[in-house]
Amino acid sequence: MKLTGARARSWIKSPPANCPGVLLFGPDAGLCSERAKTVAKQFSPNPDDPFSTTILSADDLTGDPARLADEMVAQSLLGDARLIHLRLSHERGAASIAKTIKALDAKPETCAAKLIVEAGDMTPRSAIRNAFETAKNFASIACYADSQADIAGMVRSSLRDLKIGVDADALDALVPLLEGDRRMARSEIEKLALYKGFGKEDGAKVTLEDIKTLIGGAGAAGLDDIVFDAMAGNLKTMDASLRRALAGKINPHSVLAALQRHIVRLHQASASMSTGNSTDEAMRALRPPVFVMRKNAFGAALRIWPETALARAINQSMETEKQMKSTGAPVEALLGRLLIALSSYAAKRRR
User: Fold this and answer.
1) How many CB atoms lie within 10 A of CB 278?
2) Which of 30, 125, 227, 308 sits in a 20 to 30 Å window from 135, CA-based?
3) Domain limits for position 117
4) Would you say residue 145 has pLDDT above 60?
5) What is this structure's pTM?
């Protein structure tokens, strides 16, 4: 059966006793994992006990397609509740898994264990997803990314429980950075709470400066400095930031990856503007949206770089990536040459 919205949230907190299992899938791996832990506590009094919980992977079933069925009907030697937690990294054994779910759904009384299947995004054509959604006894719950309102509420409530406040402008800057992965969002909120002493000081409050200092870490901030300066034509500051990053042992491939993501986002925004959207509308449409502290720089780069030039920059970065991955390639020199070329072009366009 397919569960959505409030019905899904209610089910996760209190699954029916006669339900033998659930599929949790979707693009938000952190949310899938968080929900799986919640359901596991409902299915088993001690889900971390290796004697009562069996962890399976997709590869385990690829080599032994019958194992899932065997585990589901096997009685516990200790007489306690058993839990099967199947984590799917691929669907190569989808047909046999779907067949097992259909067979167990027809005879739920044969299930001696509870099943949690945790997967990534699945298309409506997925055999496994279809088996769970059409089942009478098994449940299927999609885990899509939280909305900005949901994230804002999670931030406020999590910090409030620790007696920590949050400024409105800090919350506005933070929320877009936490979109897409519940696990990452929880981790960043915990980092803020730790920074603020878990509310042990009266009046503790998260500020915009705290967000700028903490979220994403110093390494991410350094990478942003490099790529933003390169695309803005700030050759000297870009070079200085690059030298600091490399001296700090930041991998050149990480710098290139950050540069490629930035160029692609600029290209997406530029394409959006070509359809009539304003610069602000184009930036807000990006996922995640442009960090508030970088909006002016991002908008300036959009004015410098035409869409066709951004497309060429993407191709140039891909060619550089190919060269950098060649055996014995001078990766730092290749990266530097690309950044100088992009920065020089931007500087000429800015004049």
Assistant:
1) 10
2) 30
3) 2-142
4) yes
5) 0.56
